[in-house]
Amino acid sequence: MDVYEAVHSRRAVRAFTEEPVPRAALERVLAAAARSPSGGNLQPWHTYVLTGAPLAELKERARERGATGDPGDERQYRMYPPEPKSPYRERRSAAAAQRFGALGIRRGDTEARRAAVGENWRCFGAPCLLLCYIDRDMGAAQWADLGMYLQTVMLLLRAEGLHSCPQMAWSVYHRTVADVVSPPPELVLFAGVSIGFADLSAPYARVDRAPLGETVTFLDDRDRGGPRERASP
Q1: Distance (Å, rounded) from C-alpha 156 to C-alpha 148?
Q2: 12-35 pLDDT per residue, tens
Q3: I need a surface site. Which of 108, 200, 202, 231 has the fewest CB within 10 A?
Q4: Which stretches of the chain drop beneath a pLDDT of 50?
């Protein structure tokens, strides 16, 4: 699979089949992903991969907490700004509308939305879950390295014919996750990534991205002495 195809075909899949993920494929992906950019070669990622009984146990524990409306453990990092400003607020709102709309869930249907969010604890049916940790002493630059590592993992999974869904949601129940994987105390859970074969019969929305002109500014010889121009949409 060519890199552009991997990028364009990658999406947050929220419906997987039960088909097992080959261990050899995971090992190939994770070995190659170790080549991800890393400032100072710190390689700050610490990864756990769960399948079978350990994953089943984690799913059940998280499901039980979610079923009671448990808001989760103390946050170890902030997922989003408390009050996102424009245009980020609109982008987030539009993405939620597209996702729930594809599932036939109306805006005011709180119960259905809660049930859809609760699917996180089932890994959306995926038979494999990657959990990515980082040492709490690391700074913003190393968290950026973590993001590049996970993106590399997800693109390599596409090359193996696999799909994924990154889930910061697992950090909400990080104590429950720790009860299963027993990480060293200095590690912070950043996110999980559900991995498997996509259930192609399930409805989904291909969430829009902002046009290039909103996020990219080109500067070149033509701009010297004149106003800056943004990229065309």
Answers
A1: 12
A2: 999 999 999 999 999 999 999 999
A3: 108
A4: none
**How far is residue 209's CA from residue 213's CA, in Å, rounded to a whole number?**
11
Pairing of strands 217-218, 163-167: unpaired
Side chain identity at residue 42, one-letter code: L
Tell me the residue type at 174: H
Determine the Cα–Cα distance for residues 194 and 35; give it in Å rounded to an integer: 21
Q: Report the alpha-carbon distance of residue 17 to residue 172 in Å, rounded.
A: 25
Q: What percent of the chain has pLDDT over 70?
A: 95
Cα–Cα distance list, 34 to 7, 31, 145, 155 (Å): 19, 6, 11, 13
Q: Taking the model in full, what pTM does it have?
A: 0.90
